[in-house]
Amino acid sequence: MPEPNVSPLFNHAKADIILRSSDGVEFRLHEVILEMASPIFCDMFTLPQEASQGDRAQVVDVSETARTLEDLLSFCYPMERSEFLQLSRLRAVLHAAMKYDMAFLVKILKRNLTLFLPSEPLRIYAIACLTEDRDLARAAAKRLLDCPFPGFAFPPNPPPEYDILPATVLQTVHEYREKCAEAARAVFLDHKWMCSEARGRTISVSKKGNANLSQTWAWLACDSVSCAKSPTSLNVHGQRNCTVYPRAWWQKYSDSAAKELALRPFGSTLARAELTEPAIAEAAKCKTCGPKAAEDLKEYIDAMVKRVDEAISKIEITLSFVKGDGKGNTA
């Protein structure tokens, strides 16, 4: 009879139970440790298994691969663990931990999932929904706002979770995104905020209706005849409501930013270099706008980013697996 393929990391001389992976690797382990880690293992060991031969411990076949078992067992034994550098590997261990009802390990692995939010928010959202993790699903949905529409949910290479993911889960994140886009647009187009007292950029208006724009933003204060005005007026707020015409370079930035915000309803969208750099370069051609344009635009964008993110933070995603969340569905 050929010698079995044994895991070099889990080949304990005093083992009293053997787990055999789906790819035929044996793990020689201690029953008491597995029973402490998992109530499922405790029940499994009472079921009929392959008969032991001589001094050979009982063999229990499992559906996990050797790699997944190795990762899983490393949390049960006092040993050094490797980092999860691949989401697929982490996902496989999480699936096994949930299958074997290892609650302590599920918590650890879900914390590890957050490390992949910046790079793989769509897959993390899918995993969170499949594992009914409300907080992780919401964090991933918010991160997806910074991914361009419409491909954010339908990439060229969909995550493997799409094979079993309900279509309603994708519909949910689309609806959430639309609400966030509406909220972001409403805040961004609130031009009265631009010259509020809170910003220290107020416009004073005389009784005769003459506006003093000297203390406001570069794109409003400029009086150079060589710096083109926008044909679109703004209704801003000073001591009285006041209609002003910003410089064309700022209006072009504002129009482009509004379009981009619809595709990426996320505060940081407003600060993207492809939006700001052309505006600053155009403003630099004006002797009046040039010296202040970059600083003023940065201050304006920094404040607007906070306003947009604050508005988005008030939007909740409706998750059907959360009790009392949405249409009365229960977890």
UniProtKB/TrEMBL annotation:
Domain of life: Eukaryota
Pfam families associated with the record: BTB
Start and end residues of each BTB domain: 15-77
Organism: Trametes pubescens
Name this protein carries in UniProt: BTB domain-containing protein
InterPro entries: BTB/POZ_dom (IPR000210), SKP1/BTB/POZ_sf (IPR011333)
SUPFAM superfamilies given in the database record: POZ domain
CDD domains: BTB_POZ_ZBTB_KLHL-like
Classification of source organism: Eukaryota, Fungi, Dikarya, Basidiomycota, Agaricomycotina
